[in-house]
Protein 1
Amino acid sequence: MNPDDDSDRLYRMRHSAAHVLATAVLDMFPDARLGIGPPTDEGFYYDFDLPRALTPDDLTTLEAQMRTHRQADYPFEYAQHDRAEALAYFREHGQPYKVELIQDLPADETISTYTSGPFVDLCRGPHVEGTGGIGAFKLLSVAGAYWRGDERRGQLQRVYGTAFETEADLAAHLTRLEEARRRDHRTLARELDLFSINPAVGAGLVLWHPKGAQVRELLETFWREEHRRRGYDMVYSPHVGRKELWETSGHTQWFAEGLFPEMQLEHQTFINKPMNCPFHVQIFASQTRSYRDLPLRFGELGTVYRFERSGTLHGALRVRGLTQDDAHIFCRRDQFTDEVSGALDLATFIYQTFGFTDYTVELSVRDASGSAKFAGSDDLWELAEEGLLEALNRRQLAFTRVEGEAAFYGPKIDIQVADAIGRRWQLTTIQVDFNLPERFDITYEAADGTRQRPVMVHRAIFGAMERFVAVLTEHFAGAFPVWLAPVQVVLIPIADRHVDYCQTAAERLAAAGLRAQVDARAERMNRKIRDAQLQKTPYMLIAGDRDAAAGAVSVRLRSGDDLGAMSVDEFLDAVLPCIESRDPAGLGFPAGSGSAA
Ligand SMILES: [Zn+2]
Ligand SMILES: [Zn+2]
């Protein structure tokens, strides 16, 4: 890249802001050693080796110093150097990390620096013209980061920041960050008592508490019912199996870094399953299959174990034990396009249920050049890709084509959904595979009596239960739709003498299929209402003397609406249809009905 490079202005502004940050850090700590400082999708960071830990106050001081350098508007000046010259400069200036970076550059690589006022950085650019062009910026946080991601090396302090063209854009971004923080599933999971991850159990391994388990069970029941309706059979398979299975499938070769360590038992080697596929293949192979039996669709909520570095784990979004909503479809070549189309239909149906209306689709194929990462013959890859294309076109789904991102055994369709605040989450994957049937040598008997290879379609709609519940928690900010709410109704007696009346009403609700609890604690009514609201319980039914005499309850919604008194039957008439239809947003009463409490 050269200084005239015309790439995205925001990217150049953020990269330039990183340099200005380093300038300010050197003002504060003249002996600071500098790591790298790149722009990112959301801002920029710079890694520093400093004599002490940075505090929030330091960030404020650094911002003020950055404003001074922005005011000075030093031009960014580009220069090329030979290796010896560059090494000498950074050695002299006490920058061992920069020296290491230069030493690791290939021999033919151009070595360049950018100078802005007092600061010189090893850098390829591009930048804005001068430090005055870095726009509106903010330093956000400090976190530990290993030099070049290597856990054996010392930790540096990574300062994160962001920059935008205008103060208004920056303010909007900070509001979005705040909104994302408010929705953080790790915080909500604790507050709503959904699930936990505990170092005593192990990093990346999720414990489902009763309320989180209730949400998951409802999702699983919905998933199973919808799959049965669409001709899937459910199967179960173990959590460990002989390593040979994944040697045959190719996972030990192509997925080696993701496997848990092996176990030796009676001269055989076992691993925790990283994928469910070989088990489902074995179920297919357990009897002679005829062309008339196909397609066979085996579904399983199968828990798999994958090694992820502790630094990459993130709440329930990125874990080491995950329950895939997996299925493998075994079909004939003339059937797989229909099967992919059916899986796309199922995925979009399921998205609707959660109010996900905006999603992006990617078709991932092999890279055209080196196919060493990918198994199988060219014509089968082409056939698989054609089928996926046809299925996408049939459903008129717009997509982008991504080269080199296919699974090792075949091309795939990935779908990302946008949540309530516009963040995109990878959920669904649908993969066509001519490869595993070959490797496991599975066949079916064709109409002409010959033995033929089935095609496999691997697919998951939610992706994984852990991740999906985390995504839903953030999407709904913990206020799950009524059908998913772990507790749907809290009954609140105004005084102790109303507890029995509430209990009787709760039994009526339970008989109608609702999850209702009586809050009989010795707390004031207002405290109980506030607690139920904090738990995002959809309905609070309050009962006092007048309600009891009239056989009624006073209904409050978690939205804050106070609907006044109604009979339990009236309440059920409004609420049950909303549960049956799995309404993603409504509470069964028109929005704004009643008076705001
Ligand atoms: Zn740079
Ligand atoms: Zn699979």
Protein 2
Amino acid sequence: MTLIKDNNYLNTRLKIKYIQDHTQTSDNGFDVIQGLTQQPKILPPRYFYDEQGSLLFEKICDLSEYYPTRTEAEILQNYAQEIAKYTGSCELIELGSGSSTKTRLLLDVYQSLDYPLCYVPIDVSGTILEDSAKQLLNDYKGLQIQGIVGTYEAALQMLSSRSSSSKMVLFLGSTLGNFSQTECDRFFAQITAALQSGYFLLGIDLQKPIEILEAAYNDSQGITAAFNLNMLNHLNQRFQGNFDLSLFKHWAFYNTQEHQIEMHLICQKSHTVYLAALDLTVDFQEGETIQTEISRKFNLSQMEQYLETQGLKPLQSWTDPQKWFGLILCQCR
Ligand SMILES: C[S@@+](CC[C@H](N)C(=O)[O-])C[C@H]1O[C@@H](n2cnc3c(N)ncnc32)[C@H](O)[C@@H]1O
């Protein structure tokens, strides 16, 4: 793992580390080569998030059709006090922190209890992490931030070698739903290695009627479509590619057997794409798809049982009145 940039600026309350993990396939575009040379084609969802992608995701969170963000915020609003009672004073480490908007609901409560505020946001998208960190510093006077720009894998590896008296890892927004079962197993092994002891707060989207799910990923303003297509823009910039966005269309549907939303880009006309930085030529046939995301929808009690098998003991779970979203607080054993 290499530290590629360490910004110690603004003041001593903010430190941001940029890390790159050469042991992972993900920093050299190997995952792009692998995904675009297999059938059917697939791209990892983390490529949604360049500066534009992060901005589009923030817009998605405000859409009337996109219930997860406001529902999870409502649960946090109602139960942050209870969460703080369980954890006591602790460092908050957030995976995929994005704008850290919902985290504020926890910071408010920890601040009201006079707990020292230490926050470790982790995100692949450096711009949103830096911008949000600066805003948080303005709004929370005693807050110390040690941000990490990098993948979950690289950051967790780094955290496992760091000791801290008490910590809680937050994984909100049902980002876990983007992982296959095998990826979940690997992820939880890394979490328990990094946590050793401490708490884990997980936000998961729950199974619900298909109409509500499909509307959330096919909004009437086309923001989700723009977010999906922006992944190709990101690849063009990052790997000197020549994807023509007008030759692809957004497609999202609920796979009822797998209990997951699947998001794809469908090719509208046969053509060839070249990514110079990867020296990769990819042929696309009309009608062919690239899967850009799965978003699994979970059953709360099955997830609690699964977490238990992963060395994370569920202490309490909370939902909204419609049971659309769940928040599970676990203790690492
Ligand atoms: C679905 S958004 C959720 C943001 C926020 N936690 C929320 O609940 O609204 C996922 C976030 O994780 C980040 N992300 C995606 N893949 C990542 C990865 N492999 N490693 C680190 N961050 C990642 C994205 O940049 C984005 O900010």
Protein 3
Amino acid sequence: MAAAVMIRPGESQDVTFLRDMVRHTGLDRSGVTIDAEPPPLSRYVVGWGRAGDTALVAFDGTTHVAVGAAWCRLFTAAEPGYGFIDEATPELTVAVVPSRRGEGIGQALLTAIVEQARADGVAAISMSAVRDTPAVALFEENGFRVIREHGTAVIMALDL
Ligand SMILES: CC(C)(COP(=O)(O)OP(=O)(O)OC[C@H]1O[C@@H](n2cnc3c(N)ncnc32)[C@H](O)[C@@H]1OP(=O)(O)O)[C@@H](O)C(=O)NCCC(=O)NCCS
């Protein structure tokens, strides 16, 4: 990762940034529907701070501008995320701003959030990404296995 980029815990004031970042996943255009509707991406951040919410933010050490984020959130069967497996398995979202991709920031965020989840005693995490994107290769390289596919979304999980 670029030397000037650092990672810190996410706070409630980062929710607007997380809301922007989740749009980069493109999952709302993946063809996944529940009751004929794509799950709203706002579901990944609304009411931030509930049990299980954990976020890390990567920021430029010179400008202090946020450049990426990784966060875990538990969902319910009634209001699932795109990578929902069960109510005990947090779903992970990782995104880096387009202008800072390919610098190792995504890998650093992924490594850090997996370490955090493991330290928190989480047994497994899931995620969902659009097929044929760099995200799928990144997660596969980090040991995630494919659980199912739905539309163009690939749902993966990692046992911790
Ligand atoms: C997935 C994502 C987070 C990767 O972030 P990044 O900072 O660019 O990733 P890194 O620079 O750490 O690269 C990690 C690995 O990903 C792969 N990768 C990254 N960008 C790639 C690209 N444009 N083409 C092919 N592979 C790529 C490579 O395998 C790379 O490993 P390497 O170091 O051996 O080259 C970023 O592309 C992104 O924000 N995508 C949109 C959000 C998303 O889809 N998130 C996943 C769903 S939650």
Protein 4
Amino acid sequence: MSVDTIRVQMGGLHLANPLLLASGVHGSSLVKVLQALRYGAGGAVTKSIGPEAREGYAEPTVVEVEGGMVNAAGLPNPGAERFALELGQLKGKRLPLFVSIFGADEEEFANVAEALDANDFVAFELNLSCPHVAGVGTEVGHDPELVARVVSAVKSETDKPVFAKLSPNTERLVEVAQAAVDSGADGLTAINTVKAMPIDVESGRPALSNGFGGLSGGAIRPIALRCVYELRERFDVPIMGCGGVSTWEHAVQFFLAGADAVQIGTATVRRLEIFNDINLGILAYMERKGFSALSEMVGASHLKGGLHEAPREPA
Ligand SMILES: Cc1cc2nc3c(=O)[nH]c(=O)nc-3n(C[C@H](O)[C@H](O)[C@H](O)COP(=O)(O)O)c2cc1C
């Protein structure tokens, strides 16, 4: 079976395969992001970049728990102006790089998009969903009207495709997605981390310096799959699934739920080389099941007979 079988076309983008490095897990340096591409990722998303440099929270910012980890890094990043200089060094390289941005309102998002847009990368991802920084993240992403204004403002600054990254920490997931799509979002990413709090029994206090943070890793995969499934029921736009993927079976679960591509975060902390193995597993599964293109299995779990009925036509 040819590797062309797992090529992805979504939102005007062409990716060599459907696996991307998720935003932020390796911090804001581009080194790991570029390494992920060398290890077989079809794309990679940068750390979320805001209008000004931020230091982030004091340690501890990450705590391991069963099935994953809880982090509250506080969106440390160099700010848009400095990050634009870093991106400038990739000029002409034509990498499948997505730049993640955040802000408190439409003006801040638009300013960051404007500061970065002239560089060589393929798409923006809007972080509407960080659960542990007051004033940005989910406080933006739980408000459909604000999301509509943010997406419109960013779209007016760029011709690049714009993906809205959604939060699982709201009952208004579909409403927020609708606002993003109606305002011109080219695709959706689901999900960011799940709001959580580990507690340390020795100190008797929350284990993270910030108190609460975001749970990621295997424990959140069924939540992420449910979100992708709900979104695919309603929308024909490209969807990137994210949350708890560490094997090819997990990636396939997301395709069946309706994702066109899959992002991997936490599992890459232990093994950034994971992408090649998962791609090979997906290819072997497709061969065994008789799929000749990824789009044939996207959303197949929505059919009553599962894989035994004709798959949905690609959007
Ligand atoms: C340490 C850490 C930092 C993260 N930073 C960001 C970020 O800057 N922007 C963002 O949109 N998501 C961020 N995320 C969320 C991930 O991109 C991803 O949505 C989430 O971890 C679920 O995927 P996973 O279970 O594969 O890690 C971060 C996650 C972790 C663990």
